[in-house]
Design a protein that fits this description.
Elements (H helix, E strand, L loop, with lengths): L4 H9 L4 H12 L2 H11 L22 H9 L19 E2 L2 E10 L2 E8 L4 E8 L7 H15 L9 E7 L2 E7 L3 E3 L1 H4 L7 H20 L12 E4 L8 E3 L2 H12 L19 H5 L6 H17 L11
Helix pairs in contact: 4-7, 5-8, 7-10
Length: about 300
């Protein structure tokens, strides 16, 4: 359903509350008709505002200098110059999707920018490595996790749109977020000022709080899983990526399945809570809080909390 004309007018004037403004902005980003209406409104009595200056805030933090600087960072990050290696193992037409290009590769599998052929909508499709799902019980658990993740709907979480299987290859389709992950900022030679780093981490914390309230734990929070998104309207904001897959893979390891094919705990060691790394107890939302703190430290200092940690 399209937002009302009054909502669009209020958005341009900066008069919507934060929750409604985020919902309208997301709709406009994917609706050419409403985007055209916004352009018309902005060309009239209200001038289009720079998202970093002069626009009425959609949240109480947007007038703070740290927030304005943080949301400007994405505009200064160039796209990676080196292309990611292509993947010839998958057909270009993959189920309902047309795979366009590889945009990421990791231990879990490969991520493609893809287009839903009937809806003409660009998404991110992550295909899982075959050794991640070895038996019927693992597949059933994956399906349960995906149903839980599919219920999440929050502006600071990358939304899961679809999950399924094509020719034995399991996949998760997510919203495609234009922007760069925070590892781009963490890799800079100059650490971030405190106000900027705190604003980025605050937004990630809001998303994780929503996930925790639904009983889901990420277990692999790190700069590479936090994306600073671009938006046609309003300032960029942080979105947490890979919640469903991280929760799923960790639950397998905790339940005793040799899902990874190794004895190593799931996660990234530089950001991993001690109890998660040492596998000495159940992992809950506190592990995410630890990892988010380690992420903040990396953004502020430029290095890991314990650069050469050696967990048992």
């Amino acid at each position: 359903m399209h937002p009302s004309h009054d909502d669009l007018l209020s958005l341009v004037a900066g008069a919507l509350n934060a929750d409604r403004a985020n919902a309208v902005i997301e709709h406009v980003d994917n609706c050419p008709d409403c985007e055209a209406t916004i352009v018309e409104l902005e060309s009239g009595s209200v001038t289009r505002a720079n998202p970093l200056r002069g626009q009425a805030p959609a949240s109480p933090y947007e007038r703070e200098a740290g927030c304005r600087l943080a949301t400007a960072l994405v505009e200064r990050i160039e796209s990676p110059s080196d292309p990611v290696e292509s993947d010839d193992d998958l057909p270009r037409d993959f189920g309902p999707y047309r795979l366009l290009e590889v945009i990421g590769r990791g231990g879990m599998g490969v991520v493609h920018r893809a287009r839903h052929r009937k809806l003409d909508k660009v998404v991110a499709v992550k295909t899982l490595s075959p050794d991640r799902l070895r038996d019927d019980e693992s597949v059933a658990r994956f399906d349960r996790e995906m149903r839980a993740v599919g219920r999440l709907d929050h502006p600071n979480l990358v939304r899961a749109l679809d999950a399924g299987e094509v020719a034995g290859v399991h996949y998760l389709a997510m919203e495609f977020v234009e922007g760069r992950d925070l590892s781009s900022l963490a890799a800079r030679s100059t650490p971030l000022p405190a106000a900027e780093a705190c604003e980025l981490v605050r937004q990630a914390a809001v998303g994780l709080q929503e996930a925790h309230s639904q009983g889901l734990v990420h277990r692999d929070v790190k700069p590479g899983n936090l994306i600073l998104s671009k938006s046609k309207l309003g300032p960029p904001h942080v979105k947490v990526l890979d919640l469903g897959l991280a929760s799923f893979t960790a639950s397998q390891a905790i339940d005793g399945d040799a899902l990874t094919g190794t004895d190593q705990p799931i996660g990234t060691i530089d950001y991993m809570a001690p109890e998660q790394a040492a596998r000495i107890g159940p992992v809950d939302g506190r592990a995410d809080v630890y990892a988010l703190g380690a992420t903040l430290y990396r953004l502020l200092v430029g290095d890991a909390v314990y650069p050469h940690a050696d967990y048992p």
